[in-house]
Design goal:
The chain has one domain: EF-hand (Recoverin, domain 1), CATH 1.10.238.10. Helix content is 54%, strand content 4%. It contains ten helices and four strands, in the order H-E-H-H-E-H-H-E-H-H-E-H-H-H. It has a two-stranded antiparallel sheet. The longest helix has 18 residues, at 46-63. It is globular and about 50 Å long. The N and C termini lie close together (7 Å). Bound molecules: calcium ion (2 copies).
Length: 196
């Protein structure tokens, strides 16, 4: 198992929101709804609709094609084989990147506040500590605030194969997400590794 395999499995677990061991359309609907709820955004708003559409497109165009056995779900094995590459993403970024940044920019001034960033990040499975650290790293060094474009760029960077700045830091943040308050009856820390 190499480092990229571990990263793939960590991502897989974050996306398997309902914890049934497979990725399908429902997981990405839940991801969008968790972010919308975490930010207190009205479910029917334009920003919410854009995020839901972004995650739906991401599922259909990026994740669903990894379903090599055609059962309508993407298993951990299929995901690992799918080799998520930024080259496969429309415009070089996942479709939810711009909508999630727009949603977190509550007042539309192009900047995201720390609390809103952490709410978004924890809603998709990152730990609060990692989220705070990442905000500080990405924030404008003069104003101390995070520009929406900087976050969109970071989400895109996250998909590049050489994106690991320090793998321990990144994986610690990702694995911490397994402890979020989502019911995951099928999620077991060792099960994915055992299938490698
Ligand atoms: Ca699932
Ligand atoms: Ca499948």
């Amino acid at each position: 198992m190499n480092e990229n395999w571990h990263r793939a499995q960590a991502r897989f677990r974050m996306m398997d929101v309902n914890g049934n061991g497979h990725l399908d359309r429902r997981d990405f609907e839940l991801l969008a709804l968790q972010v919308i709820e975490a930010l207190g955004e009205p479910a029917q708003s334009v920003k919410s609709a854009a995020l839901i559409a972004g995650y739906r497109d991401y599922w259909h165009t990026v994740i669903a094609p990894m379903d090599s056995d055609g059962d309508g779900q993407v298993s951990a094995e299929e995901y690992a084989q799918g080799a998520v590459s930024v080259a496969a993403l429309p415009g070089g970024r996942p479709q939810y990147a711009a909508p999630i940044a727009a949603l977190a920019d509550r007042d539309g001034d192009g900047m995201i506040e720390l609390d809103d960033f952490v709410a978004c990040m924890t809603a998709v499975g990152f730990s609060p500590g990692y989220s705070g650290t990442l905000y500080a790293e990405l924030a404008d060094p003069t104003g101390g605030r995070l520009a929406t474009g900087a976050w969109v760029a970071e989400i895109s960077r996250y998909y590049t194969a050489d994106a690991i700045r320090t793998s321990d830091d990144l994986l610690a943040g990702e694995y911490a997400g397994a402890g979020r308050g989502v019911t995951r009856p099928g999620a077991r820390a060792g099960s994915l590794h055992g299938s490698a």
